[in-house]
Amino acid sequence: MNTLWACAVALSTCLYVLLDGFDLGVGMLSAFAATDEVRRDMMAAISPVWDGNETWLVVTGTILFGAFPLVYSTLLSAFYLPIIGMIIALIFRGVAFEFREKSTWSRPFWDRGFSFGSLLATFSQGVVIGAVIRGVPMTAGHFSGSMFFWWSGFSVLCGFGLCIGYTLLGACWLAGKVSVKVDVTAFRCIPWLMLAVSGFIATAFAISVYTHLQVMDRWSTRPYLAVFPLIALIGLACLLHGVHKRVSRLLFRAASLVFVAAFATLAASFWPYMIPFAVTIDAAAAPPSSLRFLFWGIGVFVFPLTLVYTGVVYRIFRGPVQGGYRDH
User: What is the pTM of this model?
Assistant: First the structure.
């Protein structure tokens, strides 16, 4: 049961990174839109799905709260400031998305607010990921670091790296989805973003190995883990092919494959730790009775229904978007 819930956390987190990642990326890209018409086309590409994508963040937090309370309490204690910053950014981003439609003279303010909210939310997430990889100070099972322990060169690198990664997802989502002007811009950006993301992933992995020598031991004793970087390379090759042949449908799928492979590489490198080399899955898990209770609520109803809802929405709104993001 412990492993089942750990896999549920991994799946919901991965889905959040992919789904909310591309609409956060579109938000950051919208800051460079040449005209309001182009920006409206960008909004149109994410309008039907952007708020539903954030559901997976709530699902992840709910599972952590119920199934792994030690991890939940530790992460909130350690990352109170960046998590609060992320939540405020997501709220302001949502307000800006809705207000820009009705506004006239204040529209530039809401446009900048939407882009800045997307940037701040993404950077905060990257900082948290980088600090977790670097190591969370724990004493007797409790967080023992300072309020700003999460601020370091590596965590800032991960913050900017995730911004670039989400921007790549956003560009791949926009390609072929909306107007010709946006499509051309997306295809021009993708090769450079690919190069930047590849360099970031390689650098982050090298620093992680240097920081945690146990990671190198795992890779030397489990050579089959190399399948994940191989999958990432296949994804990059498919992405290059899609850009070269201008196959729009392939781009987002290939970029998603790269992200899933990078996520799997990270998870496999630290398994079975939920907080690297500090808290294992078994140590963090709630009592078996609590896990069984959660199974009948979240496992049987909430998680499957959210999956079905997400699949139906993306099925209905597949294909190119016509017109603005709200037609009256």
Answer: 0.91
